[in-house]
Amino acid sequence: MKKIEAIIKPFKLDDVREALSDIGITGMTVTEVRGFGRQKGHTELYRGAEYMVDFLPKVKMEIVVPDDLLEQCLDAIIETAQTGKIGDGKIFVYEVERVIRIRTGEENEDAI
Questions:
Q1: Which of 23, 37, 68, 98 falls 20 to 30 Å from 48 in CA-CA distance?
Q2: Nearest to residue 58, comparing CAs of 79, 83, 32?
Q3: Quick count: other Cβ atoms within 10 Å of Cβ 35?
Q4: What angle (nearest 5°) sits at the alpha carbon of residue 22, between those of residues 21 and 26?
């Protein structure tokens, strides 16, 4: 099993969720996060004063998938989250050793 962690632009979340749902992904965890990379933030005007906004709003999606769905999930995220502009985000893939569903005690692929 693999854990996919994707940092994407907030307005792309619904598109990515739909694309993943279409290939059979039924659950994910989504967190609103803030960060910066090459995008470097931007300046904003507030009450006549200009100030730098370093951390931009992003969304972090976390999904655990069986190995055989990994490439389909990655392709779906890339295709739907990509705008071609700086700040589209990143995807991280981790090995998952064990998963346990607390309610039933099911383990591994039965638990996801």
A1: 37
A2: 32
A3: 16
A4: 25
Helices then strands (H, E): number in the chain? 2, 6
CB 110 within 8 A of CB 66: no
Taking the C-alpha atoms of residue 10 and residue 88, their distance in angstroms, rounded to an integer, is: 10
The rounded distance, in Å, linking the Cα atoms of 95 and 106 is 19
Query: Distance between CA atoms of 105 and 60, rounded to whole angstroms?
Result: 27
Give the pLDDT confidence of 43-75 residue by residue, as tens digits.
656 677 766 667 788 999 999 999 999 999 999
DSSP, collapsed to helix, strand or coil, labels residue 97 as coil
Residue 32 · residue 59 · CB < 8 Å: yes
CA 41, CA 66: separation in Å to the nearest integer?
A: 36
Place of tokens 């694309």: 19
